[in-house]
Amino acid sequence: MIRTFIALLLAICLTGAASANPIRIKDLVEFDGVRGNDLVGYGLVVGLNGTGDGLRNAPFTEEIMSNILERLGVNVTGEQFRPKNVAAVFVTATLPPFSRAGGQIDVTVSAIGDAKSLLGGTLVMTPLNAPDGEIYAVAQGTVIAGGASAQGNGASVVQGVPTAGVIPSGARVEREIDFDFTKLKSVRLALRNPDFTTAERIENAINADFGRVVSRMLDAGTVILDVKATKELSPAHALGRVENISVQPEIKARVVVDQRSGTIVMGQDVRISNVAVSQGNLTLRIEEEPLVVQPNPFSDGGTVVVPRTRASIQEEPGIGLAEIQEGTSLSEVIAGLNALGVAPRDMIDILKSIKAAGALHAEFLVR
């Protein structure tokens, strides 16, 4: 299965190298000022089926529950709470750019106590604060947990993460970000993958589309757009035109491997210098088979255990000494190793060795 998946990735890589379609600028950069804002709140999930916090281990749950009841006019001073259907949670969300009051956003709910599951729970009205301390949204609704759990007297089973969930459109925006986008005189375009060649291509493509110099590359990760020079109605109109301009990005030669899954992903510009490779596997096996010797009948002897050990060394067939010619692409090397039946993890070890020898000309990342 893994070998088939690697072959599929290789085919995708080779196909992408052959087609190399241009990419829209909106998929390559982030526009200055057009960003989300993180929100966080502390709330209470109720209605759980006995899977909530143990209040002896999570006293903050009892405290917030008392505060909510008192705000609703219920006096609980001096009372002792021991319910198992409530859980204290952190509520997180991202306020999208240009969000307006009354809009709805998704929220994530995560238990912070010893609750076993949030399945079927309902989040009580929870204010969401930004880093400036102001409340920008209020969340409430039924939690959709991403897992399941079951427990008996002698065993329990958990699948997924039942102590975290989401509420789609679970928060309503109450305050807007104070930002006047129309007064911007220039906008910076921040490349997600900084590269001098890509930044220069973006600059040239924007200037060619407008027919005059309206953008300038500042560094490998920034291109500045002069909004006034574009002669558009507003910065929004200028960016609406710029973001749909197509550019062919320059991709850095890079190899990414995941040792846990055996996945190998590579770029099309990865090259290997002249190098020889030999690989094989050595297996050492030791088996203990003790022999029990019984004494003769009516004798004074005792039972004796005689140790008996079998040890063997087996060398499994690998690839012999193979020479890789100068300028060979990594995709060709992987295809050859895959055709020889080399296991994915052995491929990763071979690539590490080639990189250590200085023959792999690419950034090598191991996850």
From TrEMBL:
GO terms for biological process: bacterial-type flagellum-dependent cell motility. GO terms for molecular function: structural molecule activity. It holds the Pfam family FlgI. Keywords: Bacterial flagellum, Cell projection, Cilium, Flagellum, Periplasm, Signal. The keyword Signal applies. Residues 1-20 form the signal peptide. The keyword Secreted does not apply. It is found in: Bacterial flagellum basal body. Transmembrane segments: none annotated. GO terms for cellular component: bacterial-type flagellum basal body, distal rod, P ring; outer membrane-bounded periplasmic space. Coiled coil: none annotated. Assembles around the rod to form the L-ring and probably protects the motor/basal body from shearing forces during rotation. The basal body constitutes a major portion of the flagellar organelle and consists of four rings (L,P,S, and M) mounted on a central rod. PANTHER family: FLAGELLAR P-RING PERIPLASMIC PROTEIN FLGI, FLAGELLAR P-RING PROTEIN. Belongs to the FlgI family. NCBIfam families: PRK05303.1. This is Flagellar P-ring protein. The gene is flgI.
